[in-house]
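Re: export button greyed out
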Amino acid sequence: MKLFTFLSLLLLSCSTPDQAEDELVVGLDSRIRSIDPRYATDANSQYIESLIYCSLFEFDRQAQIRGQVVSRYHWIDEKSLSLELKAGFQFHNGEALTAAHIKDVFDNFLESNVYPRKFAFHNLQSIEIIDKRNIVFHLKKSEPSFLQNLVFGLFLEKEDQLIGCGHYQIDTKNSHELILSSNNPNLQFQKLKFKFVKDVRTRFSKLQRGEIDLIQNALNYDLVHILDQAENSLYISSSVGLNTAYIGLNFRDPFIASAKVRQALSLAISPQKIIDKMFYGHAIAATGLLLPTDPYHEESLESHVYDPSLAKKLLTGLDIPELVLAVPNDPFRVQVAKALAEQWQQVGVNVKVQSMDWGKFKNDVDHGVAQMWLLKWTGFKDPDILRYLFSSKSIPPDGANRGYYQNKELDQLLDLAASTLDSEERKKLYGKVQLILSDDLPYLFLWHEHNVAIKNNRLKDYQIYLDGRFDGLLEYRQ
Amino acid sequence: MIQYICYRLLLLVPSIMGVITIVAIFLHLVPGDPLDQILGPYSTEQQKIEVREQLGLDQSIFNQVFSYFTSLLQADLGSSLLSGEPVISLIQERLAATLSLALSSLFVSVWAGLTVGFLCALKEQSWLDLSLTSIVTLALAIPNFWLGPMLIYFFSIQLKLFPVSGNDSLLHFVLPSLTLGLSLSAVLARMTRTSLLENVSQDYAKVAKAKGLSGTAVLLKHVLKNSSLSILTITGLQLGVLLGGSIITEQIFDWPGLGTLLIDAIHSRDYPLIQGCVLFIALGYLFVNLAVDLLYTYLDPRIVYE
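Workaround output, generated via the alternate export path:
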């Protein structure tokens, strides 16, 4: 009895402290791999980067590029970009941000090959300082999308520590938590706690219990639906996100290499049915890689046609082997793959769903072992990604043309578009590219998933940025 | 005895070397490239070649294992391929959480297991024995991935008594310790009951009872100590399992332990981190086994190690 009383008192004395008003807890589904912008390649690291570091350019709510540290810019010629810096930006140690600092950061990339994000600067020739507030980037060749690469956290490196220039400073970082703090009185939250909670049910429970204030894009759609239907004090905001789910097709497979077969595979599936049943409406059907709101989206692209009888007709007389659809071992994605396989089954195509861990999946897809695979591209902002995905020069290991798709006309259009500065001309070229892809079907584009934020009443009116970053927290006022 | 301890400690060396070599071979057999994780999706082949060389991943498995052993002799476990942080500090960060959860779960397991086992043996074939045995069987059958979320639902969401997850305060220990400890206590309860009942029919117990001692006193003073060897063996094995980190329970309760660190490292093919975690888990098992063997001599002086 004495022991019971002692334990009860001990437990009560250790109860969880109340959350401060200016503190916000965000639940993450994966670890923040690095807070060093040079190493940050995973989504969460990049989403958080803009809270700690300022950058020359930034993406606005609709993922359109705009100057942050840069007040004005212009292309001197097709290979030289001139930037004028705003006054008043400073690092967390009080040192003013100058053109010299910027040169240091980017020169660092040119020196070493160990930084994962160096790939974005392979075209950078040199940096010329004009004066404290003016700087010129010289490129090896024309690259209109280069501005997007400059959405990159600027820092000072002192004694192996990175000092940022963003709204928040790093308070604590360990493998399961990152705490950012700020002294800026204009911010609604002075402290942001990013907690990595791997299990989706636990994230859900923590949100219900009030231990987490915000979860964005880290809750299964069925759980979002449960919250949506139930009476509770949580708010859900859902809007189209910058991602595209697709089925990749391996052109080295003789059956899939047939245009008729690819067309039949496309006609046999109904992405809309899956959107309705499995995403509960939190997605829109895709006509291509780019979102319908993207300035480069080709308007004449037709919506996906679901016609199982035509699919059956196209397959008549063909010797149909059993196909394999590879999918990473995320239970939700496996269910989606099974739903697609069921739709193919109805037109007489047997598809075996093979789920595997990411390492094996990537290995199989990169090496042309996978026949078909289900995946999504996320966070891309420039149509030049199409070159990386579909140009014959991008066949692994040189890019992500993992289906070994080749089309000379497409290659020429992609190369031309990649070096065209005039946006109207670029739009025309990418329009043609999208039409070719819609005919050739190297990918079966499925849907664009919504950005879904679930939040409590402290963030009632919070909206996610199109690319899923947390920058909405910087603007949020209640 | 000291000679025996030295002998057992020396035996650790080939055991650890064996474990590390086997793990290294299996890791390299599994498809997947750590550079995909390190350099991200847009890396070039040239970048991969340079970084592979820099990290020594271009060497043969034999060379990699050999250089790992060489570093190990200098107490260097290397750095995580992914974060670049020293493996030893990543493990240290998790070790306290794993140890504390292991001990609190063991406390639940031993306390509940011994109590239930003792009561069952004391009231053999009574309604109490039957009911407790049924509960124990049920506890054995309930998997942690079901029990954990159920405990969260009732005690955190409905009753709001305990936090859902994390390890910030003592309250955070309750649900994960119960989840881990209850299923382990079921094993211990069965073992305790069986062992006590076996010993209670021995002559020495009958004599003690004939002298007028109560059933409880016979069990506590005479039988329990003689039954403790098998109980200790099971407890030692359980502690070994707990020190290895319980991946499912750690995930459910967002517990930053060794189990989740290891599983994440496997997913990202972070070889030095996997080796480091395996090394610590293997050492945990080996030291617990050694401690159990030494405790045998204390509990039963007839046991002598030469």
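Residues 3-17 of chain A have pLDDT under 50 and may be disordered. The button fix ships in the next patch.
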